[in-house]
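Exercise 3.2. Students should predict the tertiary structure of the chain below and write it as structure tokens, then compare their answer with the key that follows.

Predict this chain's 3D structure.
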Amino acid sequence: MLAPSRAAFYSAVIPGLGQAYNKKYWKIPLVYAALGTTVYFYITNNNKYNDYRDAYKRRLLGFNDDEFSYLDTSRLIQAQRFYQRNRDLSALLIGVFYILNIVDANVDAHLMQYNVSDKLTLQPDLIQNDLTQRRQLGLGISFKF
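Answer key:
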């Protein structure tokens, strides 16, 4: 029997390890794709922010010989704000995906403990509408004692 707290702990220590503990190996690439993509965008936006910030600082010192010499000072400030906002959003998404990884491992371990039997079924069903004589899609729920 799987322990949900152990799955959550494993995912907290190494992302994806809780999914491996639950034997849901197909989820591990999704975890790393989500975290890797957001880390990539964080690094990219942080580097761009630092480039524009450094150019702005040099502009304040009177130098105009950087790679952004075609931009005026207000555009440098705008670019800094843009990349700073995107960097902060990427950092927030890293945290969200990290926590989602932990929650997924915990919930998955909890759900594996439930007994799923044929006594409870949920299946789609086509129902004839007596008023309009058209078929409609519905859900049929049955519980056998």
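Discussion points: The chain has a mean pLDDT of 90. The chain has four helices and two strands.
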